[in-house]
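Intended use. Records like the one below are meant for learning the mapping from a protein sequence to its folded structure. Do not use them to infer anything beyond what is encoded.
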Amino acid sequence: MKFFHSIRSKLTLWYVLILFITICGYGVAAYLITRRTLLENLDYSLRNEVRWVNEFIEPKAKRIRLKRAAIRELEALRKAQTKESLAKADSLERERVETDEIWNQIYQHTLMSPRRHYIQILDRNGDVLFRSQNLHDNTLQYPDIPYQWVNIVTVEGFNGETLRMALMQTDYVKIFVAYPLTPVYEVLDDFFYNAMLIAPFALLISVIGGWFLASKSLKPVDELTKAAREITAQNLSRRLPVYDVDDEIGRLTAQFNDMIERLEASFNQVQQFSADASHELKTPLTIMRGEIEVALRNKRISSSTRELLQSLYDEVVRLSGIVESLMTLIKSDNGRLTLSIGKVNIESLLHELVEEAKTLASSKKIKVLYTVTSKPTVDGDNAKLKQLFLNILDNAIKYTPNGGTILVSVDEEKGYAIVRVTDNGIGIPEKDKEKIFERFYRAKTRKRGHDPEGSGLGLAIAKWIVEAHKGTIEVQSQEGKGSTFTVKLPCSL
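Structure written out for the chain above:
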């Protein structure tokens, strides 16, 4: 697609791609870092909770007896029904009340905790001494409980809930503190969904911003391109606009201007050489032509000498035509060739030229047909327009085989005079269509004996005359089947 061939588009797409990769990389990194931070904070909180419970229980540890042993002893004392046994039973009951007060304080602590911790405390036999209310009838279990240090594990809890659990045991109790990982995962999910929601908007903003920045950065390039397109062989004195900035574009512009200056100097030298050579050749060719004409009027020369002089005369005439064409093009390049503008009836002009073309084509038995659907009038130079159409007709006659047909038509469309010259000659190869209007260029098919006298300047002059009249000239051709030259000239108002 043409869109993707633009530097502006490529810069925008690269910018968006890099931003997309950056956002993805940042999102993954932020997700992993957030996950690790949340888990580390949770682990830190669980360790602190286990240490607090242990530090709270440790001074009172002597009061905490094995639950089953204490119950059996209390029951035995009460069954004995002696004065001493009842007194000891009362003492044990008071210890149990004091112990329950310990669990009550731990319970109050769990209510004040900002986290929804599960706390469970067992005695050495594994009997439950304390269980937080949110555990209900569930039990926290783990086979390997470390002694006097806190271990952090992840386990499958009740109701299929994943728990992060800290655990340790002392000489008196086994402490379990757990926290469900569901809230952590919910935070991470919220982070992920928010990132997914924000990413498209960020990319859209980056597309708009990237396009804006690329357009702003490349605006000088567009201006340089427009200015460079307007520089032709006729105005090489023009220069690209110079930006007073020492950046890549500024340096490139300076280099282009230096190159155009060198091209202008070379072009001027070529033009001067061509003008001087044409001018110097014109006089001796005119003298040679005159002397040959005088010699041909001598009736006493032999037939072989006359043939030789006639051949020389033809070559001199051809060289004179080439020199004259060169002079015309050189003057047009220098702007020294002016047009005598007047009202020109295209139909009348072509009618006269067609009659001349019929005479030229008669030797090859070529039919020249002329059709008129309109009689447009243009503002132009009669002599130059005559030269224009004569060059096209002469070109058609040269490349149309014996017995061929040439059709000349005149029409008017949308304020333009349309002249078409169609032949059924040898045609023009596709690769040569854009080059046949260049000076001295001749297509390969037209070098194989079809036009031994051609100079390759006729169509170049024709193009200059058309453009000088603010018109256009186009060619449609198929090799081996013929060509159609179409000239469009603006009609008189």
